[in-house]
Amino acid sequence: MIGLGTYAFFWQHSDRVDEPLSLRGAFEATRALEVDLFQICDFAPLEAMSDTALRDAAATARDLNITIELGTKGIEPARLTRFLELAEIFGAHVVRSMLYGPHSRPTLAEAEQRLRDALPAYQASGVTLALETYEQVATTDLVALIEAVGSDHLGLCLDPANVVARLELPRDCVEATAPYVANVHVKDFAFARQPGWVGFTYGGARMGEGLHDYPHLLRTVRPRERGATEPPVNEVVEHWLSWQGDAQTTVRIERDWTRTTLDYLRSTT
């Protein structure tokens, strides 16, 4: 299933616009684009919401026929427990996270033990924990961790854009993680010369205009070819869009990138 995430609304959610988009507004915008999935990922207001507000948000998503996934950072026991509770409220079957949280950087051995402790509850609830590929942890280490734990409810959230900052090649990341991918973050990326020809910046690009070989990802991971007994691998749209100088321009481009990415993904089905 193709979905949108909070990173596709990054600037629309931010306090740099006059009227920041609420979670309900993001759900409604998602439905207006005829998308059936939304990933609430690294969305700080979520953790400050009361139980009543959370249940109201979950009811809104259900009323709009939108499936919810969740995302956080860190694998501290309390965090994993809380997001499993949130998954129950929203009916989510995927929680994306990262090994390192805001206040925790476990060793691989510590991470393995934390995951072993948490996963029985996830499995009992039918929720998959998807650890994202990113620059702070080598892809080979993440794959080794997944293999060591050996749970059907532990996988990877594949984001090959992130690993470039570790001098890993996106195609290598895709190929190494393919058997374990439980979720995909979809965005294009590119390098651009800085003014004066003194280095490069690495950032987002309009889908299809950057360096991401998405057809290779589709051939290798095959997210849309899972069997009836296999959990789906959803493709969640997000962006790396830098501030464009003013709110109106930034939001206009963010929305354009979203439409372009959805068109691209739908053209490949």
TrEMBL record:
Query: What Gene Ontology molecular function terms does this protein carry?
Result: isomerase activity
Q: Which InterPro entries match?
A: IolE/XylAMocC-like, Xyl_isomerase-like_sf, Xyl_isomerase-like_TIM-brl
Q: From which domain of life does this come? A: Bacteria
What are the entry keywords? Answer: Carbohydrate metabolism, Isomerase
> What residue stretches are annotated with the Xylose isomerase-like TIM barrel domain?
78-236
Q: Which Gene3D superfamilies match?
A: Divalent-metal-dependent TIM barrel enzymes (3.20.20.150)
Which protein is depicted? Sugar phosphate isomerase/epimerase
At the highest ranks, the source species' classification is:
Bacteria, Bacillati, Actinomycetota, Actinomycetes, Micrococcales
